[in-house]
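writing this on my phone so excuse typos. first protein, seq and then structure
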Amino acid sequence: MDGRSFLATALVHFTAAALSDRGHKRPGNEDALGFSVEHGVYLVCDGMGGAAAGEIASSLAVDEMLCMLSGRDRAIPLSQAVKEAIFTANEAIFSRSQRNKKLSGMGTTLVGLLVEDRHVLVFNIGDSRCYRLRNGGLEQLTLDHSLVDEQVRMGRMTRPEALRSPLRNIITRALGTQVHVEPDIFEIEAEPGDLFMLCSDGLTRELPDSEIESLLAADLPIEDLCGHLVNAANKAGGHDNITCLLVRAGE
């Protein structure tokens, strides 16, 4: 057998674990997560809105996305399947908010992976993030759709200024708040040993990337890594809901 040909077609098998915690300051948990290793779908959402509206928006998003992507037509390109699922989820949240005034303006962030063999689609709306740990180095794969991060990318604000800004909670894209929303979609190839982390900003607001990298690099089962990350974020303040979903690529 030609070794190079075998490597090009070798399958990558994924395992996953997740943990969500309301933190120390919030009365409830408006984050939601869902995944299906069988169908290669992994999702984290961070809801927003008055009363229980944020919890409803994030749960609706996860349910709709998981249903659409798990039952997708395998003949359809992955990017098209993701866009169709996001459109359906957006419509479900927006139409429900229009029917119920108590839910008016509700929405949610979204970050997810859709995996097929080695091929991985990373997609996001808002400021929930996807990271990848590869060979001990941590890389943020998504771009935050937030006012301060867009200012940083345009050179109008420094990163330290962004961290101190009173506007740092303002996101510029959300699922369900408008008739149409445009996701970012990134296509990458997974390698055995890659560790992907999907998380809400309740984790990344409390922990610097250097600490996240150190915690993820520990030689532990991924369910233990989830616990250590959430515990560290709570120890650092736990000002928001904290959700962490880890997906490990293996042979």
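second protein below, same order as before
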Amino acid sequence: MAKPQPSSAANTQNSTIAEQGTVKQENALLNIGFNILLPILILSKCQPLLGEYLEPYFDNVAVAILIFALLFPTGYFIYDYFKRSKYNFCSILGLISVVLTGGIGILQIPTEWFAVKEAAIPVLIGIAVIASLKTPWPLIRTLLYNPEILNVDKVHAALQAHDRESAFEALLKKCTWLLAGSFLLSGILNYGLARWIVISPSGTDAFNAEVSRMMAWSWPVIVIPSMCIMMIALWILLSGIKAMTGLQLEDILHQAPSKVAPK
């Protein structure tokens, strides 16, 4: 009996994956610096240092400082896109969060909506991750099973050779639910942390300081637990690939091409 051939959508996806293998790696230090450290420092330290100089030019100095702090993650998003010619998923999320935070502060929307925003973004992402299973482009392939992490061409060929493609799709679904769970956990923790820390009226110095404090606390309270779940999902994915294909870890993980030594 002849084996079923892969669909045209799958072939297109695999060719796209192969083309993405040469994408430049993101600079993690720049990401953390522009998206987290600089905004924290500006929101927490600029008011006492620059407040008196900004007062003649702005009716609300706190709003001016908030806008200044938000310029850095916005600028990094633009820089990263032109540097690598690729949309960065995490940077897109960060930019959306920055725009919403700025809107709440500048328009002086009730502070309660800040907590809703903090919870809504990861929850909506989790829902999108699950919903994408019904499309030809599940997000699990962008977040975990992608050529920046895994040697997807070699894995795909090995799965075909062992006739384990259907079993692999079931594994991807299992990892998808774990990944969605990490975003749900992030949403719950985001909401609780925001309600606990950010309580002052938006558009005030106190609001900026509390947003800064929350950004600092988000790493130990939110990011680490969520990353642990994502790492568990990645470990399950790698273990499943090894069991289905017989490939070793060094064959599965994507490695940059070795440079040829000059003669």
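The CA atoms of residues 89 and 199 lie 30 Å apart. thats all i got for now
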